[in-house]
Design goal:
The complex is a heterodimer of chains A (117) and B (246). Chain A is mostly helical. Helix content of chain A is 69%, strand content 0%. Chain B has a two-stranded antiparallel ribbon. The chains are: A mainly alpha (117), B mainly alpha (246).
Chain lengths: 117, 246
């Protein structure tokens, strides 16, 4: 939702399918392929892929951008575990604002897992 | 022990990151609310070990992680329930279920406060280690545990809502917890670990350095070297890959 909101402020309408479909989709965010590849490599366990993604990002966007990307990715490696390990529901305002978006991106499949036996 | 540093990194790392990591490492080594310093460092070590566990690897590859029996390969002396929590949260967080959590609590080996503090410790290690991996440096050595007993402090205003664990209500961060999130809306993910208030303080301290300061969350013009949309793309892709509904 914050990706969508951050685009709307500048009058841009990012395609959020890039989030759930990775590099297949195109969000419209600048340098998205580099950033998505880096995010995927950090979550994955292929050190070679990570080294390549890191090198590409460094070469194209510079060291400060690499640090920022690593910092954001690692932050959300923390946050997803906090959310999933405590079973917190969506905040009411988020729940209401994202009904259509969640349906479009088929995000309910992630929630269904929580009540599985 | 040498102070935590990124001096050996091939690229410069802005100072607020190692500063936040040092504070986190110092807190990691101290007794918390429910675990001693030695136990907290043991939790951190187990979190690092989890990705090498054959049982976790088999469960991750299976259609359901709850149909693969076995014992975790562990490196310490923590209770079995604690080891299971650590391994599952580290390796397969998107498939944690309320049924699993309830069974974990029912077994009686760990309390809800201990559970929350386990999550607090392991996400600190995961976040810092993931950053190191991202910038291409080795994980920092774990700190030497400090002596001292757990405080056994449980905030009086923490109550059960719709989450699995008790949390302080958004408008009940008062008294000793008045500093936790200040005025304004405190989202569920900020309140999630509030059964251990210092966990919230650390979450915010690390997030300020790694991501966006809380008072700028709705300022979408804010960015660092990456623009805000670029930051959100990375954040959202990581979250989607981990299967995180929130």
């Amino acid at each position: 939702m914050l990706l969508r909101a951050s685009g709307q402020v500048k009058g841009e309408n990012f395609d959020l399918h890039a989030v759930t479909e990775g590099t297949v989709a195109r969000s419209g965010v600048a340098h998205e392929e580099l950033l998505v590849a880096f995010a995927e490599a950090i979550v994955g366990d292929d050190d070679g892929a990570l080294a390549m993604a890191r090198s590409r990002l460094l070469q194209e966007l510079g060291p400060n951008a690499l640090v920022d990307a690593a910092a954001v990715a690692s932050n959300f490696e923390r946050m997803v575990r906090i959310a999933d390990a405590t079973g917190i529901p969506l905040d009411n305002f988020l729940d209401q604002m994202t009904v259509d978006l969640r349906a479009d991106l088929k995000l309910e499949r992630f929630a269904a897992a929580k009540t599985a036996q | 022990m040498a102070e935590l540093s990124y001096a050996g990194a091939a690229i410069p790392v802005r100072a607020d990151l190692p500063d936040a990591h040092r504070r986190a490492w110092q807190r990691l080594a101290r007794a918390g609310n429910w675990w001693t310093g030695a136990e907290r460092v043991a939790i951190a070590a187990e979190a690092r070990n989890a990705s090498r566990c054959p049982l976790c690897q088999a469960r991750k590859a299976s259609l359901s992680p709850y149909t693969v029996p076995g014992a975790h390969s562990s490196v310490g002396q923590l209770p079995g329930a604690a080891i299971d929590v650590i391994h599952r949260v580290v390796t397969d967080p998107g498939r944690l279920t309320q049924a699993w959590f309830s069974k974990t609590m029912e077994c009686g080996e760990i309390t809800d406060g201990q559970y929350v503090e386990i999550i607090d410790v392991l996400v600190t290690v995961i976040g810092t280690d993931s950053f190191c991996r991202g910038v291409g440096v080795a994980p920092h050595p774990l700190p030497r545990p400090q002596p001292g007993a757990p405080s056994r402090y449980r905030p009086a205003t923490a109550k059960m809502e719709r989450a699995w664990v008790a949390m302080i209500a958004a408008d009940q961060a008062i008294g000793d917890e008045a500093d936790l999130w200040g005025e304004g809306r405190a989202s569920n993910v900020i309140r999630a670990l509030s059964l251990v208030p210092d966990a919230v303080r650390q979450l915010i301290d690390l997030s300020d350095a790694h991501y966006v300061a809380r008072d700028r969350i709705t300022d979408f013009s804010y960015g660092r070297s990456l623009s805000r949309p670029q930051m959100e793309l990375v954040a959202a892709r990581v979250s989607a890959l981990r299967g995180c509904f929130y």
